[in-house]
Amino acid sequence: MDPAEFRRRGKEMVDIISDYLENIEQRPVFPDVEPGYLRALVPQEAPEEPESFDEIVRDIERVIMPGVTHWHSPYFFAYFPTASSFPAMLADMLSGAIGCIGFSWAASPACTELETVMLDWLGKMLKLPEEFLAGTAGQGGGVIQGTASEATLIALLAARTRTVKKIQAENPGTDEEDILPKLVAYASDQAHSSVERAGLIGGVKMKMIPSDDKFAARGEALRQTIEADKAAGLIPFYFCATLGTTPSCAFDRISELGPICNSENIWMHIDAAYAGSAFICPEFRHLLNGVEFADSFNFNPHKWLLVNFDCSAMWVKKRADIVGAFKMDPLYLKHDHQESGLVTDYRHWQIPLGRRFRSLKMWFVFRMYGLKGLQQYIRKHVSLAKEFESLVRSDQRFEISAEVVLGLVCFRLKGSNALNEKLLKRINDTRKIHLVPCHLSGSFVLRFAVCARTTESKHIQFAWKHIAEIASQLLQEPRQ
């Protein structure tokens, strides 16, 4: 493909993408295929001779689309949102074309410097404490990770290194092998499974703190666990608080938890993967009160801030804590300016060495939407969730299972778990809308998350009517 054909085919692909997104709600939101469907549709080996672009385009509908779950359909209400906007797509195209691997400032100065500035922009939108911003001389700063689970792991590993170094400084001659088995990390029992997985990868004990009746981790529960562990000879070193838990969008009480972590020299990381985007709105910013106690904070603009995947924003108060855990400086990666104090080499802030020019997406989106446009988008989704909540509450057969704060509604039919499991299966089997469940206090609960950029009130009304009709059919059937 030469530049002339690329220009022509690129315009065709933009048309294909635009047609797909404009007509996405005409497609079943969830695919009707069985595992292994795709292998039967493609040859067993790669072609020896080149094929035409036209042949590839024809096979998009034949091979790919039958197996796609349409996350950007306005009838997709599962999991949490994954962001999508045209400015971000265009930025991704430019990032792919530039194709730099921004592991250091010298590898592409614009890639590094725009990221630093964009994380400061976003931090100011969130009104983060000054310590988290890089500015021109700050000790903290932001970085784009691939996912929130990466950020959780990065923070845990940095906390582990900081703790080991501190103990060794206080007790010269102590081996790391003697310290690691005693380390213990904490998270709420409502935390995402990736937090527990970080403990597995980091080779440390991970204990789950029981949540209260609002599904939030509280200070007293953490304090009691810490005291018991210290009495048993363990070394508490890390706590991951969640703002906007995956099951119910609950908020750990970081204003209670933070002072405890600070007094015990425990690294507090805040995972706000979904909910963090909402903190750009003044009416939701109070949910972040207590962030001043944290050592690190993370959320995913690629969930709810119109920046396409992957773009997970992470800030630290002291970047030396991160760099100190991961820095490796072979000669072939060094450059003339790395000791100047004026540049950042982001390879020291992450697990992979390479990184794409992801900050372009933030730059395009922030400029084309503006803070007010982003706030309007968040508020619209919250309003749609409240609309769905009111529909659920108007039907005496249903109940709301958790407080509706942002764009997630947890609800269920009054009755057994088996009844609600059957309800969800029938909803998803129709492939008209898509939901996923969770367990809250032993109950099987349906999660309804407002996800797509194009979701409107009519889609909420359709979804509720569909759910209510299936519930009516189910309740009329004789009980087994």
Q: SSE order in H/E notation?
A: HHHHEHHEHEHEHEEHEHHEEHEEH
Give the percentage of residues in beta strands: 5-15%
- The low-pLDDT segments are none
Distance between the termini: 62 Å
Structural class: alpha/beta
Instruction: Please count the helical segments.
Output: 14
Report the biggest beta sheet as strand number plus sense, adding barrel if it closes: 7 strands, mixed
Mean pLDDT: 93
Annotation, overall tally of beta strands: 11
What features would you describe in this structure?
It contains 14 helices and eleven strands. By secondary structure, it is of the alpha/beta class. A hairpin with a 2-residue loop joins strand 10 (436-440) and strand 11 (443-449). Helix 5 packs across helix 7 (193-202). The mean pLDDT is 93.
Question: What topology does this entry show?
Answer:
Layout: H1 3-22, H2 53-64, H3 86-98, H4 109-125, E1 141-145, H5 148-170, H6 176-179, E2 183-188, H7 193-202, E3 205-209, H8 219-231, E4 235-242, H9 254-263, E5 267-271, E6 296-299, H10 301-304, E7 312-316, H11 319-326, H12 359-393, E8 398-400, E9 408-413, H13 417-430, E10 436-440, E11 443-449, H14 457-476
Task: Spell out the key features of this protein.
7-stranded mixed beta sheet; 480 residues; alpha/beta; single chain; 4-stranded antiparallel beta sheet
Structure in a nutshell:
The protein is an alpha/beta fold. The protein is built from 14 helices and 11 strands.
